[in-house]
Every structure is written in C-alpha cells, then in structure tokens.
Amino acid sequence: MKKIFTVIKKPGGSAEIKLTEKEPKAFSAVVEGKREVIPFPGLSGVCIIVDGEAAASKKPNFCLPEYNDMLTGTAVVAGIDFETGFVSLTEEQAEKITEYLKTNDAKGFSGNIGEKIASEYLPHTEINYLFGMLCEVKTKYKNLKFKWMSRR
User: Fold this and answer.
1) CA 97 to CA 43: how far, in whole Å?
2) What digits encode the pLDDT tens for the residues 2-46?
3) Which of 78, 94, 97, 114 falls 20 to 30 Å from 42 in CA-CA distance?
C-alpha cells in the first residue's frame, strides 16, 4: 500500500506529520467516520478530511476563520491532485499547516458547537466556486465526493 505524508490533528493535541495510507478508507478510519473533504484555506492543492456527519457531537479541534467555521474531531490534512487523488504534502506545506493549526487551535472553546458550525459555510469566492465545480474527483480508487460543497 502506498503511504503519503499528512498532518493529523486531534482535538486538544498538537498537529503531527505522519505517514498515512493513501486509500480513502484509511482516512475514514483516522477521522472515525464518513469522510468530508474541504479545501485548506490559502493553500492550493491541499485539503482537510474530517468526519462530516458527527460534527456537533465531537470535541472542538480548530477554527477556520476564513470560512467562519470550526472543525471538530480528528482532522487529516493532505495534498490533493485532481487527476491522481490524495498526494503527500511537501515539507513547506506541512510547516505552514502546522503553524496555522497551532494559531487557530480551539482549546478552551466554550459555547454551542452545533450553532457555530451551522452558522455559515464557505463564502462564494471565485477560487471556492472553481473548487466546487471540481466536486467529484475521479481517481483509480474511486470517485471522491466533496459533499461539503453541496451544503451551500
């Protein structure tokens, strides 16, 4: 099985660079649920994988101020190529991601997570619109569906 470099962040913990299996099912196991894929803010070719179905019932992990959102549960950050699927992060990407996650950690958040998460989704900008247009990625493994984009 092919492995790729990813950044994994658990709620209350530090971001760690790890080798993860490239198979989409492996990401489901890490996030402990059904995969939901979101573009990483400010980094082209990078995405965040989280459990999209149990967001309000899990512990807060980190905020995404660019999307006015907060992610809960374990998150995996990986590179993505629209032709081959998930790919390894570069060292530079991993450093930027680790710093971003440290800066936006949700440790100590108090409030209603469900209301915070349901409040707003990604605003319509040109770059996010293009990402939404590419909401299905065909890979040799299977189609990766970006369900998050259809919530708007």
Assistant:
1) 9
2) 999 999 999 999 999 999 999 888 988 999 888 889 999 999 999
3) 114
Tokens representing residue 27 in the block: 């990401």
CB within 8 Å of 45: residues ≥ 6 apart: 79, 80, 81, 87
The CB-based long-range contact list for 94-97 (8 Å cut-off, 24+ gap) reads: 94/5, 94/7, 94/17, 96/43, 97/7, 97/15, 97/40, 97/43, 97/46
Token code pair at residue 112: 């209603």
Tokens of 64: 């995404």
Could you give the CA distance from residue 152 to residue 149 in angstroms, rounded to a whole number?
A: 6
Could you tell me the two tokens for 35?
A: 């995969």
78 Cβ neighbours under 8 A, 6+ residues apart:
4, 6, 7, 20, 27, 46, 47, 49, 86, 87, 88, 89
